[in-house]
Design a protein that fits this description.
The chain starts with a helix and ends in an 11-residue tail after the last strand. The protein has an eight-stranded mixed β-sheet with strand order 3-2-1-4-5-6-7-8, sandwiched between helices. Helix 4 packs across helix 11 (about 195-215). Helix content is about 30%, strand content about 20%. The chain has helices at about 5-10, 10-15, 20-30, 40-50, 75-80, 85-95, 115-120, 130-145, 170-175, 190, 195-215, 285-290; strands at about 30-35, 55-60, 100-105, 125, 150-155, 160-165, 225-230, 235-240, 265, 275-280, 295-300, 305-310, 355-360. The chain is built from twelve helices and 13 strands. Strand 11 and strand 12 (about 305-310) form a beta hairpin. The longest helix has 19 residues, at about 195-215. The chain has two domains: about 5-240, NAD(P)-binding Rossmann-like Domain (Rossmann fold, 3-Layer(aba) Sandwich); about 265-370, no CATH class. It is globular, with a radius of gyration of 21 Å. It binds zinc ion.
């Protein structure tokens, strides 16, 4: 172990028998990537950085909003006021917490095109996402490359986590594609809410597993699907079997990684819609001008996407509520069918309309415009 200050900083963690100086040394040399920096991702990042994991990458495409602050513990009111990208705000905060850790915030939307680039080069992936499309993509990448990843999810007062070791444990496809899919797929934090304590509990379980892996203590992994409800106090630990017919870990069909399983439109539960484009090149300046009536401050973040900030109606004061996702090709509003998130589609457009590239538009509009 290097200096006295390191000995001091991690002294209580090293005193823990399961970690010790050897485990701490391994942690300091390890690299973790967190996909999604919402409530679970932010809590996990905080714990990993404080524990002294050598390098922590955080991938997120969202901006901090006031409604995040109730549970997303890395962010504060000024981050929300400035609508900072979560990856940027998280990097800034985490560097001030532990300058010895190499923290990198990546403002990006993880997809089939960039998954290998963004996820390679780490020892472990932690799930902080809010949708199953991205989770299956991570699962495909992890299974194919033999990397460990830790699934975690929470909604309302309920949450669960599973450590996935390719070839050793069941993978996410074993769990969710075997016909007994979870009802949790249907509900999001935006439809039935979420409590701060459950996301922090799930992130704590997740990071404890991460520490075992990164400190070289795989024998300490519990090997179960852990679930709990902080409202009822019920907890469960279930041992699961691999599915011998599993698409991913048995048949090596990585359709999410190859982009074949990706739907054209995904509602991701954060006032945003992803429109996945496959076959056409995009004229971004033209798109920006189409969006101009409703979206201001259009910024290109990567060459395959851009973000828009809301254009408020004339004379509008007060908080901006509600959201209308926009189709980047037509600039038209994508309506929520019967107001139910998860059923968004483009009006007047066949669902199978081919698009090219991957675009995200975040457009918030004033409540008054919501029914427009
Ligand atoms: Zn599997």
């Amino acid at each position: 172990m290097a200096s006295d200050s390191l000995l001091e900083k991690y002294s209580r963690q090293m005193l823990f028998a399961g970690m010790g100086p050897d485990g701490q040394r391994r942690l300091l040399g390890s690299r973790a990537t967190i996909v999604g920096c919402g409530a679970i991702g932010a809590a996990a990042a905080n714990l990993l950085v404080r524990a002294g994991v050598g390098s922590v990458n955080i991938i997120d495409r969202d901006f901090v909003e006031p409604s995040n602050l109730q549970r997303q513990t890395l962010f504060d009111e000024s981050d929300a006021r400035n609508a900072l990208p979560k990856a940027v705000a998280a990097e800034h905060k985490l560097r001030s917490i532990n300058s010895g850790v190499e923290v990198r915030g990546v403002v990006a939307d993880l997809g089939p095109k960039n998954a290998v680039e963004l996820l390679s080069g780490c020892d472990l992936i932690l799930d902080g996402t809010d949708n199953f499309e991205t989770r299956f993509l991570i699962n495909d990448f992890a299974v194919e490359s033999g990397r460990v990843w830790i699934y975690a999810a929470a909604v309302a007062s309920y949450g669960l986590t599973l450590t996935i070791r390719p070839g050793v444990t069941p993978c996410l496809a074993c769990l969710l594609e075997s016909g007994n899919s979870s009802q949790a797929l249907e509900e999001t934090c935006d439809t039935i809410g979420v409590l701060g304590p459950i996301v922090n509990l799930v992130a704590s379980w997740q990071v404890a597993e991460a520490l075992k892996i990164l400190a070289g203590r795989p024998e300490a992994l519990h090997g179960r699907l852990l679930s709990g409800d902080v409202w009822t106090g019920r907890m469960q630990a279930i041992r699961l079997a691999r599915n011998p017919e599993c698409r991913a870990c048995a048949k090596h069909d990585y359709s999410y990684l190859q982009g074949e399983a990706q739907p054209h439109i995904t509602l991701c539960g954060r006032d945003s819609v992803q429109i996945h484009e496959r076959s056409r090149a995009l004229d971004l300046p033209a798109l920006a001008s189409r969006l101009a009536p409703l979206v201001e401050d259009v910024r290109q973040i990567r060459n395959d996407g851009f973000f828009g900030r809301p254009r408020h109606p004339e004379g509008h004061q007060g908080p901006c509520r509600g959201a209308l996702p926009l189709c980047p090709l037509s600039g038209r509003v994508i309506r929520f069918a019967q107001g139910i998130p998860g059923s968004a589609r483009m009006p007047g457009t066949a669902e199978r309309t081919p698009h090219a590239g991957a675009i995200q538009v975040f457009a918030k509009v004033h409540e008054r415009e919501k029914g427009a």
